[in-house]
Amino acid sequence: MLPGPNYIYKCPKCNTLHQQMSLMSGNTFGAMIYSDGNMFAPMMPDIPKITLCTECRQIFWLDEQNLVGTYDFNDPINEAFEQAASVSHLYLEDLIYVIENSLYRNEDEEFYIRQRLWWVFNQKLLKDSELLGNQHMKSLYQNNCVRLIELFKGEYDNERVFIAELYRNLGQFDRCMDILKSLQDEEYKERKQALLKKCKEKDNKVFLVK
Ligand SMILES: [Zn+2]
């Protein structure tokens, strides 16, 4: 893993500086990949695109608008930059807040938030199967899956495999199997078999594929 410069962003509400690492290169050595595409890779960390201010809890996008500079290890010392808090990923409740208040400005940002919400929910469901016993949580989860199915265009197998997974997560096993049967790409042969097996077992939980 080869890190690139650190990017410095300011909170648009209170101006507190935050830093975000960047990667020149990374790899998936030792990665854990789940059936919903969520990957935990020590050599290729998932760098957040949106964060929560450590001072005032304002949620803001890490974009050009809030970028104030960069620094690299061989740059002159800039204490303010170096002492800035590292950005972190949003937790479930913050992701829900972003969705409920439509704090995204286009379909790419909406997709990013909804995919993260899907992943965070799926990880929590592995540990707490009662989570969706709460009606509000259940409709949030289901509506999010339905909207993600719309946002994935479904033109190619690399999207259709995730549309199939979303239907399986929703418990629509027949729909999932129909889509799986349409996959042609050899790359998804193993995944397809694993998902078909889960459908036959009526198991809708996310699982480790690698
Ligand atoms: Zn702030």
Characteristic key phrases:
single chain; 210 residues; alpha+beta; 2 domains; two-stranded antiparallel sheet; 10 strands; binds zinc ion
Structure description:
The strands form 4 sheets. Strands 9-2-3-10 form a 4-stranded mixed β-sheet. Strands 1-4 form a two-stranded antiparallel sheet. The radius of gyration is 19 Å and the shape is globular. The chain has 2 domains: 85 residues, no CATH class; 109 residues, no CATH class. Helix 2 runs antiparallel to helix 3 and helix 4 runs antiparallel to helix 5. The protein is an alpha+beta fold. It is built from 7 helices and 10 strands. The site of zinc ion (ZN) has 8 residues, from loops.
Short recap of the structure:
This protein is α+β, with helices and mostly antiparallel strands and 210 residues long.
* Most strands sheet: 4 strands, mixed
* Tally of individual helices: 7
**How many domains, as an integer?**
2
Q: Which ligands does the model contain, each kind named once? A: zinc ion
Distance between the termini: 20 Å
Topology:
Blueprint: E1 2-3, E2 6-10, E3 17-20, E4 23-25, E5 32-33, E6 39-40, E7 50-52, E8 59-61, E9 67-71, H1 79-82, E10 85-86, H2 92-100, H3 107-127, H4 135-151, H5 157-169, H6 173-182, H7 189-200
Parallel strand pairs: 3-10
Antiparallel strand pairs: 1-4, 2-3, 2-9, 5-6, 7-8
